[in-house]
Design brief:
Elements (H helix, E strand, L loop, with lengths): L20 H42 L1 E7 L18 E9 L5 E9 L7 E6 L5 E2 L5 H49 L9
Antiparallel strand pairs: 1-2, 1-4, 2-3, 4-5
Helix pairs in contact: 1-2
Organism: Streptomyces variegatus
InterPro entries: MT1774/Rv1733c-like
Keywords: Membrane, Transmembrane, Transmembrane helix
Length: 194
Amino acid sequence: MALRGPKVWLWRWRRNPLKRRADRVEAWVVLGVWMLTVFVGVLAWTTVSRSVADGLARERVEWRPLVARLAERAPGTASENAPVSRAEHVWATARWTAADGSEHSGQLRVPAGSAAGAPVTVWTDPEGRQVTRPVTESQARVRAFLTGGVAGLCAAAVPLVAGRALRGRLECRRIDQWDAEWSRFGPMWGRTTG
């Protein structure tokens, strides 16, 4: 473990007659790595956030609700005294006609005990395939922000790890140079016992 004095801001950039070329190289490496880390993180964050937000906005525009009809009675029994929002939902098969006139069917969550032919809402894409309900504008902002943030952090980790590896190599090289210098000048400092 190396002993260090009090923490001094910008110590790598201060004038020092003992500063070697390796110290100056390390100072520039640290500065470059931090600048690259911030740049890559912000670039990835904004790019991914914008892409996710655009995709979710496109879904809100293109996906449409249609009225589907249950093809069969939904399993279970409807509880008359339970509120509608808390009623048990089950999977049942429903059929619908897309905007282009093609017939489709799929499984939907419906209240238990719904009668065959009962209308239910199904969300579809432009080809008439069943999709989930699109997210709201505020949900899309949150999702884009979080997805972009995770992508930015992951992208920023790459130059940070690479810079740490480079600093490790510089440190090994510096220690090797110290060993070489010590083996050359160390014996001159005092008597050797032999």
